[in-house]
Amino acid sequence: MDDADLRSLLDELYKKGMENDKREHNRAHKMLNLEPETAHFLNILLRSSRRKHLLEIGTSNGYSTIWLAQAVAHSDGQVTSIDRDANKQALADENLRRAGLRKIVELKCGDATEIVKSLPGPFDCVFFDADRYSAPAQLAYLLPKLTEDVILLADNILSHPEEVAGYLQALEMLPDFERIVLSLGKGLSLAYRANNRGLL
């Protein structure tokens, strides 16, 4: 699929996700897709830093997963994506196949905290975009499985500050990480393990 067709597919999925979320009153049935500008930023970040082993927590219908997979495809990378909802992950499977990116994405269905315990890693990027309250525990399990120059990302920092407070506090406790919150979309946390090579 060329870039124009892929962008058309992404626009279609985002529009359908928005329409679904307007109809649905049950949060569990909402797609809650990533904001397009945030998704595009992540795609550029991952391509430019040549990430190869990415973990996404929160697949939904695969909208963000396609952005991430297209980015790591440039480095012959792989994405592992977790979601607890089998119906949403079935949609993601279909949409990734439409995008021609299914072969580089491993989909895992179930409780993310339990699944990350068994993942071997290593991961050079982790994107937290699901249950915000569980993110600190997931981060703790993942720490031994992260590369030296790992990038940690989390969405909804500005839209749900109380729910992400525990994750941000856990980040602050980690040595050698530079952290910044970007006012992009619903707020994006970006942390990078600098190992004392940064400016600050």
Structure characterization notes:
This protein has 200 residues and is an alpha/beta fold. It has one domain (34-193): Rossmann fold. The protein has 7 helices and 7 strands, in the order ααβαβαβαβαβαββ. The chain has helices spanning 3-23, 36-48, 63-73, 86-99, 112-118, 135-142, 161-172; strands at residues 53-57, 78-83, 105-109, 123-128, 146-154, 177-182, 188-193. The chain has a 7-stranded mixed beta sheet, with helices on both faces. The longest helix is centred in the N-terminal third of the chain and has 21 residues, at 3-23. It starts with a helix and ends in a 7-residue tail after the last strand. The mean pLDDT is 93.
Look up the CATH topology.
Rossmann fold
Task: Specify Rg, calculated over alpha carbons.
Answer: 16 Å
Which spans have pLDDT < 50 for at least 5 consecutive residues?
none
Range of helix content:
40-55%
Residue share in β-strands: 15-25%
* Largest sheet: spatial strand order: 3-2-1-4-5-7-6
Average pLDDT level: 93
Largest sheet: 7 strands, mixed
Corresponding CATH architecture: 3-Layer(aba) Sandwich
Distance between the termini: 42 Å
CATH homologous superfamily, by name?
Answer: Vaccinia Virus protein VP39
Q: Please identify the structural class as seen in this structure.
A: alpha/beta
General shape: globular
Strand and helix order:
HHEHEHEHEHEHEE
